Amino acid sequence: MVRRIGRVISAVCSLLLAAACAPTVAPPQSGGAPQIQAEAPRPPKNLTVAVQREPTGLHPDFTASLTTSGNKQTLLIPHNYLVVRNEKWARIPQLADELISIEKGTWRVNPDGTMDTTWKLRPNVKWHDGTPFTSEDLLFTFTVYKDPDVPNQAGRVLRTMESAEAPDPQTFIVHWSGINVDADLAQGLVPVPRHLMERDYRSDKTGFLNSTVLGAEFIGLGPYRLTKWDQGSQMEFARFEGYYMGRPPLDTIVVKFLNDPNTMVAGILSGAIDLVLPQAVDHDAAQEVKQRWEGTGNQVRLDSQGALRYLLIQHRADYARPRNGLSNLLVRQALFRTTDRVAISEVATHSEGPIADSWYPPSHELYPQLRPSIPQYPLDVAQAQQQFAQSGWVRNAQGDLISQATGERFEIEVRSPTGQAAEQIIAALGDGWKAVGAQTQQNIVPTVLSADAEYRVTLPGMTITGNIWDMFLSDVLDSRQVARPENRWAAANRAGYVNPAMDALYDKLTVTVAPAERLGIQRAMVQEAMTDVAFIPMYFNVVPVLSLKGVRGIGGMVDNSNAWNAFEWNKD
What we know:
By secondary structure, this protein is α+β, with helices and mostly antiparallel strands. It folds into four domains: 2-37, no CATH class; 44-55 and 222-298 and 548-572, 3-Layer(aba) Sandwich (D-Maltodextrin-Binding Protein, domain 2); 80-212, Dipeptide-binding Protein, domain 1; 307-541, Dipeptide-binding Protein, Domain 3 (Dipeptide-binding Protein, domain 3, Roll). It contains 15 helices and 22 strands. The two termini are 34 Å apart.
């Protein structure tokens, strides 16, 4: 009887979504009926998060000054998008019921070069005020994005988004004037609440961008709703009970804006902060915290953000020095073979940054399939020496590498902006290259010159720089994007790299939608570029995530945010 009552009560509690465990049953008192003891209410689950920079708003495409200093971390706590990317850079549907695809007919490329995409939306999605989210919201969103009088951050994707329609509440169709291979990212379609903002949009487009619905009174579709925003201090979020994926685990999330990394560290060491998100705390500070926390259960995690640190090589013969140096493929390969990437990662990231062999991070979902096509350049001084000799460079009695044709000494200027362990990285590079007689000239570029586009582009040797991996799939190595006086030295291909084979692969990639076909092109691109040593990859940057014991479910960093899975965040 007692067991039966317990089972019934447990079932009732489940149906009522009781937050606590099933109640306990006390032994019967002197033959009387069993007594049900009410379990004490559990303490609230509150998560306190620290980030370095405060956003100016909570909608990514109508919010100015979003950088990589942590101010994107907040956006996905109160809002959801059609699609997000996880830490493997895989696209996953969020508000969308599924990704668009060629196989299912929801992504159609037409014979005339146009395109149609059909998004199916999840049912029962609600805005934080309880209003249903439908395709009409997306149709309004599309209208706003396409309006030239409403500036936004969506960029060139809008140029080929020609028209849209909402045939039913759960279906949204976009008609494209051309092919966009990233249409499955749903860029330019971050939802805007039609029922709250259409009147402002129709009456005052300037005021639309200043609407409190995009800021202090934000209404979104995410697992937590904004309840308070103390400008310059913190934001407070509460669980949204009507969230379409179920009841979020936490009662509240407080996001504190702390400009000083030392204050962040002090806060989490004292227990006043549960979680510190990138980018804020540097590697040295994170290592100190990690040592201090050893054996406590608290955690210092290092997330790869997909940002490649590499040596940009000057490919223009007019600027490159020494002559017959970087313009010679065998010389570039020899330098790659004597670049000690392990030592460089050690000084730059305490050996936590993954060694790079291309622009694809090892954590990328496609990397296992691409790696067999990536030429490898392990440290090999003997082979590098042989390649230098084949190129007309030999060592003299003093061990210096000398041109047989001109007598010129092989010396490369390596530039770097200040910070980021620049001097240590250049020293590690110099140690490796010295093994074959090459000399290194260090140039730490002052801030005033870092902003000079011509100075940055016309370097004689190499510069330490970085890019998110997918930038290489757009224009970094495209000869049509070479920086030159005509474009004020501002185009993406700063290295002056020209390779017709790469240009042809870029052209194919921009019109190929089917994943299997794209994979073949990506294999060919990475093989071509790395065989040609278009640049020298070193390591992928990592950023520290600090969390107290019991904090769990925090996703890896992607697109400068760890909050893409904020619904799964929890705290014991």
